[in-house]
Amino acid sequence: MKTYHLNGHAGAGRLVRTDLIKPEPASGEVRMRVEAASLNYRDLLILDRAGQGGFDGRVPLSDGAGVVDAVGSDVVRWRPGDRVAASFFRDWISGPFKSSYIPSSLGGSTMDGMLAEYVVLPATALVSVPDHLTSIEAATLPCAGVTAWHGLITRGGMGKSATLLVQGTGGVALFGLQFAAALGARAIVISSSDEKLACAQALGASILINYRDTPDWDVAVMKATDGEGASHVLELGGPGTYDRSLRSVASAGKIVQIGVLTGFGPKPDLARLQWENADIIGVTVGSVEHFTAMTRFLSEHAIHPVVDRVYDFDDVPEAYAQLRSGSHVGKIVVRL
User: Fold this and answer.
1) Where are the beta strands (DSSP E) in the chain?
2) What percent of the chain has pLDDT over 90?
3) Helix residue ranges, H only, 63-170
4) Which of 121, 155, 218, 327 lies 20 to 30 Å (CA to CA) from residue 311?
5) Are 167 and 241 in contact (CB under 8 A)?
6) Where does the pLDDT of residue 266 fall: very low under 50, low under 70, confident under 90, or very high at 90 and above?
7) Environment class of residue 295 by beta-carbon count within 10 Å: exposed (0-12), middle (13-18) or buried (19+)?
């Protein structure tokens, strides 16, 4: 089978195409023929770390969807031909998160990922793909979709009366926007591009703020909400956006903390949280149970993920370059 692995030699992380023997499923395992895989910002961080001595030899990408190709003994849930996607954390099936699940993240420091024609996983780590989605669309769900669902819906309790503030138009951001629109909630989107804001408006955003034209976007959020602020803030930026997110959150609101898009740096002053009785919800993707609940919601509301561009297997380095450019709207996918 064809696959890619990370090569960290010569001090620069790079992707190397290789051929490997097709893996065989053991008892309790399923072999998936991967039809599509999608990229996340995490994959750029891992590629860069491969050039610093970490992740060398690892098959990258956490997100993929395809078809069950073979099953091991004792597998009763799946049959060849079933359409499935793999959960980001192989071992987090349900219940609260445990730090012991971290090594089971696909495409991470200890676990190969989805950028291969075939992968073998425990039967418990797979989720059925909604009938209305293609494999290319389904490949966008495991990280970005589940992250937004877990943070905003499962733990954030976002409903019809909510006001959601979304930063940008990447994968997690647009999933959050689509969930809010399906629920009938109000959505505010900030971006540096009027073109991207127009895409957000088409998906249901009602308040649009270009932060290049309006650097004090937190002031604009408060003005647009009559001084109340956003009940839910999808915090994707990190140090570069956190202080403004704190100033944008409503009393008793929730900041769903996910990203590090602006890098790592000084910690924000959290005092306002106390005075406003607001919460920070830290989120790292989610479980198989979260994934399954999200697919039901997607089916009920006929939601289609936003796919910016699809690359062929031979063009994986170009897909990484497109993600690094930040010019995309939604998700970037590789077709296998």
Assistant:
1) 2-7, 14-19, 29-38, 63-71, 83-86, 118-122, 126-128, 163-167, 186-191, 207-210, 230-235, 249-257, 279-282, 307-312, 331-335
2) 86
3) 135-138, 146-148
4) 121
5) yes
6) low
7) buried
More confident residue, 242 or 107: 107
With beta carbons less than 8 A apart as the criterion, state whether 63 and 114 touch.
yes
The pLDDT assigned to 28 comes to: 97
Q: How far apart are CA 96 and CA 4, in angstroms?
A: 33
pLDDT at position 265 is: 58
Domains of the chain: 2-140+305-335 (3.90.180.10), 146-282 (3.40.50.720)
CB count within 10 Å of CB 78 equals 16
Question: CA 221 to CA 230: how far, in whole Å?
Answer: 8
DSSP 170-190: BHHHHHHHHHHHHHT-EEEEE
User: Checking DSSP bridges between strand 249-257 and strand 279-282, what pairing results, if any?
Assistant: parallel
Q: Residue 86: which residues within 8 A CB-CB, separation 6 or more?
A: 32, 63, 64, 65, 106, 114, 119, 121, 125, 126, 127, 142
Output the DSSP codes for 197-225.
HHHHHHTT--EEEETTT-S-HHHHHHHHT
Residues 39/46, Cβ–Cβ less than 8 Å: no
DSSP 91: T
Mean pLDDT of 206-224: 97
Q: What does the radius of gyration of the chain's CA atoms come to, in whole angstroms?
A: 20
Distance CA 164, CA 151 (A): 12
